[in-house]
Amino acid sequence: MTRAVDVVRILVSPLTRTRLFRRVLGPLLLPPVERFVSWLSRGRVQVSGLLVPSLVLHTVGAKSGEPRDAPLMYCPDGRGRAIVAGTNFAGQRHPAWTANLLAHPDAAITVRGKRMAVRASPVPDDERDAVWARIEQQWPGYRNYERESGRTVRLFILQPVRL
Q: Is the pTM of this model over 0.70?
């Protein structure tokens, strides 16, 4: 299975760096497909999870106070935590979920159908390069989204917490 996933990553990765993916396929097509597959599988399957580790981030809206869900790629940090990057498909604006985490760092994630509480911490500036290197081991070229967006992408560590 791992070998097949690696081959698919090699084939799909260049597509994710195209303008078509960043402008149309990623932001417009992928979210409704993710929601449908998640609904169909009762949260156990994510389309993006077929290629990379994926989770659903459950936050509270920074302005609305309403519950918000965002399917995201994550990178395990090797210490039981998840790293998430607010790339927004190289868009000029930060994704809303990053503002939600800044306003309300206590959140939850669902990974493979299992929900757990987490506390989000922004990655300090002096650790950004090391964190990006770890992310790019999983998905080569991912930091190009930051370069192409013209902004500093918000990176977070999601630490599981006991309730």
A: yes
